[in-house]
Amino acid sequence: MNGAHPPGWFARGLAWTTVIYLVLPLTIVLPVSLTDRRFLSLPEHGASLQHYRAFFSSPLWLDAMGQSLWIAVCSTALAVVAGTLCAIGCWRLSRRSTDLVRALMLLPLIIPSIVYAIGLYRYFGRFGLLDSFMGVILAHGVTGIPYVVVTVSTALAAFDPRLEQAARGMGASLRQTVAWVILPRIAPGIISGAIFAFIHSWDELVIVLFIASRRVITLPRRIWNGINENLDPTMAAVAMLLIVMTLGLLLLDMALRRRQR
Questions:
Q1: Which of 5, 69, 122, 218 lies 20 to 30 Å from 202 when distance is taken between CA atoms?
Q2: Residues near 176 by beta carbon (within 8 Å), at least 6 away in sequence
Q3: Could you read off the pLDDT of 14-28 as tens digits, one per residue?
Q4: Which residues contact 178 (CB under 8 A, 6 or more apart)?
């Protein structure tokens, strides 16, 4: 029996090796963002915050950050509402058809982003949604729904249906039961899904490249344009800020999960 499974130290070593392999490239971003040169490179004479100051004093970068924040908030709200309702509906029906619905909700995660973006480009072109905030919000909202469906469905799997039955037995309507009994119990799952949907929209680039051009310039799109035009170290400073924000949101999600347990 012992030979059927790898030893504990081997599994931990393999896990840490994988983590280091994935994280190591990100450690290069910090020193490059602190370079004292005018191009992407490591610091020559010492660390400098000039590129961080350039970011916070640049109207172009601040406008891109504002657009990314606005799109991420709106698309997250759309994903949370649609994903939560879908998960609750599938949980209440509990039929074979609901498994198909859950599978369809996961398609944006399964299909490659570039394939999905090409489809959105052809589809949005017919309705005049190309290069519009509404188009990007809808695209990011739809692709954020799977995160909410997964986390809320997981929370509902641990929900005691006797609580719902007790509420209905005491005269609560369906709306009151959902608002006062179900939603408070699955709130950690909803918040977790919202965090992942926000991160997805905040960092997304492929879809924006296809359905937006001049009017909508998100932060990842601004970085992409900077790579094509010049190698301004401000891009490294922006990338570092994105990493810190994403890491902070993930730590918040871990704290919420630990509190739920």
A1: 122
A2: 167
A3: 888 888 888 887 788
A4: 88
The pair of structure tokens assigned to 66 is: 């504002």
Domain spans of the chain, in order of start: 68-216
DSSP string of 88-121, one letter each residue? HHHHHH-SHHHHHHHHHHTHHHHS-HHHHHHHHH
Rg (CA), the chain: 22
Q: How crowded is residue 144: how many other Cβ atoms within 10 Å of its Cβ?
A: 30
Instruction: Name the packing angle between helices 187-203 and 133-157 (round to 10°).
Output: 150
Fold of 68-216: MetI-like fold (1.10.3720)
CB 180 within 8 A of CB 172: yes
CA 216 to chain centre: 19
User: What does the buried/exposed string (b/e) look like for 190-214 if buried means 16 or more CB atoms within 10 Å of the residue's CB?
Assistant: bbbbbbbbbbbbbbbeebbbbbbee
Question: Vertex 65, ends 67 and 246: CA angle to 5°?
Answer: 115
What string of H, E and C letters represents the secondary structure of 161-187? HHHHHHHHHCCCCHHHHHHHHHHHHCH
The 10s digit of each residue's pLDDT in 39-76 is 777 787 778 888 888 888 989 899 999 999 999 999 99
CA distance 175 to 170: 14
